[in-house]
Amino acid sequence: MRVIGIDPGLRNLGWGVIDMAGPRLRHVANGTCHSAGDDLAQRLLSLHRQLAEVLARHAPDCAAVEQSFVNKDAVATLKLGHARAIALLVPAQAGLAVGEYAPNAVKKTVVGVGKAAKEQVQHMVRMQLPGVQIAGPDAADALAVAICHAHHLGPAGRRAAVIRAAG
After folding, report:
1. 3-state SS string over 125-149?
2. Is 13 left (phi over 0), alpha (psi -120 to 50) or beta?
């Protein structure tokens, strides 16, 4: 089964694709969609098109998106929410089930500690996906989201996803 993890961002939206075969995980691809345009609508359209192309190219069976946290800057939080909407919309348009995970749940699953530093997350992504060449910090976070989703699916969830994808 193929999983895409998405780390939403308005400037840089990270994505990572992994394959699951039983308990084994294998890296497929990762990268970052960079928004283009002068206004918010153009930037969102740019992210939508790029992410839709990634899904078309890699044909995942399911998706997982990192939830956003609320910070002190309400405007920045709202803009991140727009990017997160794109991250949820594109897989839904492709007919995929979408899981959502809080940042500390992703870190706890991948590293074992909910307050892990970005460097620790990247290290553990490399350990769990041997030979991976990570395209940047946003892509690393997206791969961590995909790994988290794979672990939370478990054997029964994986079987159900395979049946959904086949039917």
Report:
1. HHHHCCCCCCCCHHHHHHHHHHHHH
2. beta
Secondary structure class of 117 (helix, strand, coil)? coil
In tens, the pLDDT along 18-75 reads 999 988 999 999 999 999 888 999 999 999 999 999 999 999 999 999 998 767 788 8
Closest CA to 86 of 137, 143, 18, 35: 35
**Phi, psi at residue 134, to the nearest 5°?**
-85, 130
Maximum distance among all Cα pairs of the chain, rounded to whole angstroms: 46
Model pTM?
A: 0.90
Catalytic center residues: 7, 66, 138
Query: Which two three-digit tokens encode residue 41?
Result: 């609508």
Phi, psi of 89 (to 5 degrees): -65, -50
